[in-house]
Amino acid sequence: MIFNRPELRPSFLRLTTPVRTVLAALALVGVFGGVLGGVFGGVMPSLAQAKPLKLEKEELKFGFIKLTDMAPLAIAYEKGYFEDEGLYVTLEPQANWKVLLDRTIDGELDGAHMLAGQPLGATIGIGTKAKIITAFSMDLNGNAITVSNDVWKRMKKYVPKDASGKPIHPIKADALKPVVDAYKAEGKPFNMGMVFPVSTHNYELRYWLAAGGIRPGYYAPSDISGQIMADAYLSVTPPPQMPATMEAGTISGYCVGEPWNQQAVFKGIGVPVVTDYGIWKNNPEKVFGVSAAWAKKYPNTHLAVIKALIRAAIWLDANHNANRSEAVKILARPEYVGADAKVIANSMTGTFEYEKGDKRSVPDFNVFFRYFATYPYYSDAIWYLTQMRRWGQIPEAKPDSWYAKIAKEVYRPDIYLKAAKMLVDEGKASKKDFPWMSDGYRPPQSHFIDNIVYDAHKPNAYLEKFKIGLKGNERIEGGKIVGKP
């Protein structure tokens, strides 16, 4: 657990909010400016740039899972961005995604590092039903799919090679299909791990498999295993346990965030075959989620949190990732990710290692701010909803208007832009770095591994394009697909 003890804070930061506000106001008009600037060094200049928010709550506890994409929380803490906003934050690692969500819902956590699908899944009642919102997207990309050494040996002969004999990336699941077919012929299940039923990893793994003609299985109200009619059987495994579970032979591969793909390379037990950048270029990955009730009760506190997180994201991507080496050292500490710094650096600093020794430049493997990464797009939310429908988690057909309604209920770019404007006004961010005129929708996207174009304004038409997956009025009953597409 990482925490700020009030008694250990600098004396100025221990002052009550009203007193801090008065001092900041005095600094704004120049009264005591020189004296206070000399006494408090770098603190007063940031406070002097704008009137602080009147916070409804100062002491906060945020949850996270030990993955490198929790970095905005760690950096906002370590660089003092939370305290700049008058916030005193405890960061606490959680056992798994369900515990993290439940504790956010019941108020034990004020907010958390969440899977992009978690606020959506909770809002529409997949698993625990609760209203969760997000006003901040934590990153783009950051995941990969890893297979065991044995599976890689069997699929490698089907992988296209370049003139030097190296595999051509991204590797498609077409190369895995003969291996899965052989397992079926031998009467053996082909098992793979993902981190949670509404995780980005689940949908990315399913997308990749289906694009290669491998059915990942369906969900139904009467069977939430997600393995109905499956060729490959997907099940939940907590991220830090992925390498050991594969090494034990329980699963033959998995989709997870870093550093747990690179850990397989370092341990010599598996090979990452594709990153999610190769499955969907610049896909949204994690979000910062809070309950809708919390956001309503503490609106200014919420804005302050988003401001601090935006500053952290800017720092993480600044000067072409110049700060990443420092970020790696921070994340390697046991209170954050707790993995070897060399393992974290293998992807965090702009490279990615596939087979042992096959390290390639992937500068956008982790993106925290550029490409408007932190803006919560409605179109990102709708993509996840289409995948929930595609695999039966949303069991019945929904009109296009429903997708837009849920996206706008959960994703809150209005809150995000309000926080961004405050940072720009304070001189802590550049106006050009935010999509002020966006309607919340990205233009139609074609950067998918199967080249299918995604237009968020037409989710049902998008679903019609897939050979594998539910569409139209189809549903799962009695272990099979019924209804008209």
From TrEMBL:
Organism in which the protein naturally occurs: Varunaivibrio sulfuroxidans
Protein name in the entry: Nitrate/nitrite transport system substrate-binding protein
InterPro entries: NrtA/CpmA_ABC-bd_dom (IPR044527)
Domain of life: Bacteria
Principal subcellular localisation of the protein: membrane
Pfam families (UniProt xref): NMT1_2
Assigned keywords, A-Z: Cell inner membrane, Cell membrane, Membrane, Transport
Compartment list: Endomembrane system
A Gene Ontology term for the protein's cellular component: endomembrane system
